[in-house]
What we know:
The protein has 405 residues and is α/β, with parallel strands linked by helices. Helix content is 34%, strand content 14%. A 7-stranded mixed β-sheet has the order 1-9-8-5-4-2-3, with helices on both faces. Strands 10-12-14-13 form a 4-stranded antiparallel β-sheet. Helix 4 links the parallel strand 2 and strand 3. Bound molecules: pyridoxal-5'-phosphate (PLP). Pyridoxal-5'-phosphate binds next to helix 4.
Amino acid sequence: MANLAVNGGKALYEEKDAMMPLAWPPVSEETAERIKELYLSRAWSFNSETEQAFEKAYAAYHDAKFGVFMVNGTVTLESALLALGIGPGDEVIVPALTWIATAMCVKYVGAKVVFADIDPNTFCLDPDSFEQRITPKTKAVIPVHLYAGIADLGRILEIADKHGVKVIEDCAHMQGGKWNGRGVGSWGAVGSFSFQQSKTLAAGESGICITSDDDLALRMYRVKHIGYPPDSRQGHASGGPEAGLICHNYRGLAIPARILLDQLPGMEDILCHYDACTGELARLTADLPNFRLQGTDSKTTRRGYYALGMVFEAPFWGKVTLDRLGAALHAEGVRCLEYTYGPVYKHILFNMDAKDYRQDACPVTEHICDRTICIAHFGLYYKENAVKLSEALHKIAANIGELEE
Ligand SMILES: *Cc1c(COP(=O)(O)O)cnc(C)c1O
């Protein structure tokens, strides 16, 4: 007789008691009213007041002076690279574990992507691997603060400085995060954020670059607004962008900016819920063999969350595939599970050109991808989810033989 629900046993939690996510993205009647006003006002684009208010508030929240709002968090990365003068002939170092956009943006500007490995605790760029991959052609590095991890900004900035390499922080997962008391995205030359539907602050689509460098802010603004500076009427630009700055139309819209402006004050409370649930989960699972949660850098002072990694190591979990494990957890009533991204160099969509990136092996990234299942952030909102998840994990551990190949 099987005990595990995936094998026909009785589930720990039936559907009505299954792990409950926070309904995502959050909605409110007040915002719906304001969107209606905005719609009727006709101020939908072109650096609207709403957009400017959001740029200011969001940059300030992360301790930067300027925000440049755009249509998504991929073009923000591309715009940062363009504004920093990166293009053909240059190399940009990117961690192998990230969403493909972090690497794609390097291709868009004609530069070469070089993959570096990650730290097994934070899942973020390993400073040693970064340093080993620097060549005279390296112009930039894009550390990613992935899932619930913040990269070791101290060492990364020190190495980057020493070699004259620019740092663009990909903060798509780290809304509200702080490192050593200061907002993520404010440490590198630019911080890039995404507000795509699944992110911790969500508006369907859109993104922002933050910086405290006026010149860089202006250049990023020109990049997203087809070359125009702010406050110039169409056909009346007082001066052009510097020669060679490739500009696009990547302008953001007022309605997503309104949604985000309204969500921002509630973000800290959501992060506190995620913290509480994560803390409880760590406590309840401390006795599980060869199991751990994604950790934090020692200087992380405010953790942001896109997801939280659960690592299932050998020998205890060594004969169980992630597919079997995921199915077993789901059958017991666990929800909101996701596989990790990457390694990006193996991703089919990243291998559509002549170079075969699959040779750029990063062993830590491969190991983490083979042994990790993530919980999406909205699954961490209710503290009782930690109890349900822990009970399911313990039940599976007690019946591990049922899942072994
Ligand atoms: C979501 C995401 C992006 C890009 O965001 P889009 O707004 O979807 O273009 C970039 N980097 C990471 C790590 C992401 O998760």
